[in-house]
Amino acid sequence: MALWAGIGAVAVTATVTIATAQGEPAGPSAPSGLEEAVGQTVRDGFPGAVAYARRGDDEWRTAAGVADKATGERARPEQRFRIASNTKAFVAAVLLQMEGEGRLSLDDSVEKWLPGVVQGNGNDGEAITIRQLLNHTSGIHDPTTEASFFAPYLEDGDRDHIITPREVIARSVRHRPEFAPGKGWSYSNTNYLLAGLVIEAVTHRSAPTEIHRRILAPLGLKHTSFPVTDPEVHGPHLHGYDLKGRDMTRFSPSYDWTAGAMISTVDDLARFERALFGGTLLRPSQQRELTTPVEFPDAPAYGLGVQRMEVPCDTGARRKADPLTAWETDGAGPGYTSVSLTTADGERQLVLAATVYDLAAELEGEPPVPRSEGLLKARTAVLCD
What we know:
Structural class: alpha+beta
Number of helices: 14
């Protein structure tokens, strides 16, 4: 789901460091305002924030605040974090690759690949296509929007609790659809759980294995992983927190699976997005499908696991009425908020992660992150002139 609008509306003293690519001599100065913007997110209440920025071939990494409040360990750009719904872009890319290979069509019905899985209470897998899963026009209910869904984790305190993807789907189809397939837009994690099952039905391999085989290994994303039930974040990592400062790092990813279970770093995520939007991963026809958004009143310009944004730039020669087009993926889950942006010409990127997301607050209809303009300022600093 798109985070920038919500963060801007609701939105620790920091030490910020700027570095060029590891092992390379210092290059051009970092974009003006980036250091201050990332530092502001920490001053405004995020314990830690890390960012990757790129303009052309020049890269910068930035870190602010602490990775672990208990120990005072400093945040560092190479530390891992849960990327949550950024996972969806990996899943969409795999399905688009498979379409390019002729192994399926995005216009295949869900019923074709998952017979009997989406049935009952007005739900009909025969009427829903894979494309509608990927662009959130299926109408399938999302039970992860309900407080009762997370009661085992948040009320009972069982962070190791396992809810399988098929159980999430079963809960979804106990509800009537939000609308008839193709007749509206509604973000639903269930769509991407079904998409993951389609990957498995076609390939006869697990979805995490297929993502590793097709994306992580070829791109050398050595710090990206896909836990299925393991509640820990392994290796050097940022700790994530809720608004009360409670450590939310340990949290079973089982329910999120292909909707949001992956762990990565800002560098790995940036490399993936550069390949995704640069045409390295997909054939031209599938590249067009990736970036063809749906058009519904009051709905975002959502393509297939990615979203088109118009970034207001009121700096230099660029006028406020002349926004910059960018492609976005983002993620929000217990303890972590992250956003990745790539300009339409592929020349500029920003990947930023900050260490607060309060799931309980979100479920109660309250702002889940501290109020801060730092995240929006970082966007402007990197993407705009």
